[in-house]
User: Fold these one by one.
Assistant:
Number 1:
Amino acid sequence: MTSSAGLNFQLLRCHRRKRIALQVKNKDIIVKAPYDVPLQYIENLVVLKKQWIENIQSKQQLAIRYQNQLSRHGQVWFFGKLTPLIIKEGKRSLVAVENNQIVVTLSTRKTLSDTTESLRIKKLLEGWFKEQAELILTDKVTCVSRQTNLLPKNLHIRQYKSRWGCCDNRGHIKLNYLLMMLPESVIDYVIIHELCHLKFLNHSVDFWNLVESFLPDYRAEKRWLKEHQHYLTWTTY
């Protein structure tokens, strides 16, 4: 571990590396550099980048504060609000909303390690979110389809790692059940967005004009999604 300007960083040297790379992962600072770069040069670079490093660390800490934490005393986004997660034990496993909290009951039939418990909580929440999505998203798509006269041939609801929804050239709409984390207005935007792809399978001016004709304030919903995207991940601790 090396120190410069009050910042401790890990220095990794590599023969194949041609340039210096600086990575910030929460409190850890990693500098990757070729062997022929002097230590003094690297330390000066860290000093020069101190403000940038601290800004990145601040943003990462903020992300941790507002992201899903699927554990005891954790939290989860639900309909656009960061909702307290309460874990308790009972005869059977279930998930329910009580007093603006999401309560996860774990079966007492077997003892779980902390790691197994976190995975169990994650699995129960995913199943519950999917059940909610099957009911709510299906109803929303049916309603919006009638209003817009944009009718998909099929609707599939599942989890995706990097998309909220998609539409293919066969007229099939697929939605991520984790849409249940978003505000209803943003959910509606995603649905309208995908339905408009039934007419324009691109992001042309005509496509966005069609979206705007159904949702004049769509830019606000799109902006919310962009600003909160990095919070909306599933994390176990």
Note: The chain has two domains: 2-66, 75-231.
Number 2:
Amino acid sequence: MSGCEEYTLITDPESLFKINHPELPLSYYTGVLGMAGLTAYAGFFDVSKPKQGDYVFISSASGAVGQLVGQLAKITGCYVVGSVGSDEKVNLLKTKFGFDDAFNYKKEEDLNAALKRCFPQGIDIYFENVGGAMLAAVLPNMRMNGRIAVCGMISQYNLEQPNGAPNLFCLVAKRIRMEGFMVLDYFGTYNKFEEEIAGYLKEGKISVVEDVAEGIENVPTALIGLFSGHNIGKQLVTIAHE
């Protein structure tokens, strides 16, 4: 991985890898076939241990990770709901990515009530990308023996004093397994992941939406947009067209 630059000098050629599916867009290897995709795949299958019929909730669901988790959950036979920050993204989840339901958390006065509306039977799997108030609302809505895969907590990164979840005893009472993970621990599974996801892409079972900014001068704006929820899907910056 290099910096934000127009030209890169590779001093460690062993870090490069062959593109095995050149018939797919090259940009996919920065997203759905890259670290974001492997994060979604490992977090859902290895950490969450899904079963057909599970009720799955994903926060920040229109991002590069969330959109793939949702589609993998549907392929597995789960009921899937996502939370996002705009009505446009709600529509995208339901029409493009096949989510069963979605809601705009910015329009919900009570997140707990929103989750009860979407999951009257409770949640089996929560794929955590946000933290804070969303996690606090999710915990009492989890089912017995639920699983929480902690991928990130973007609402907390820039706070001087991060919020704590006030109801962690739910983990005990409901025998919930809450596990954090890092994609670096799953690099050894990349080949299996790549072949499976590439197959789904070619079969049309997985859709991809990317957010592309033009020009290296727009890197700061694109980066800041990640923390305000401006992007839809993997945020990319194009510096040259071949």
Note: The chain has a mean pLDDT of 92.
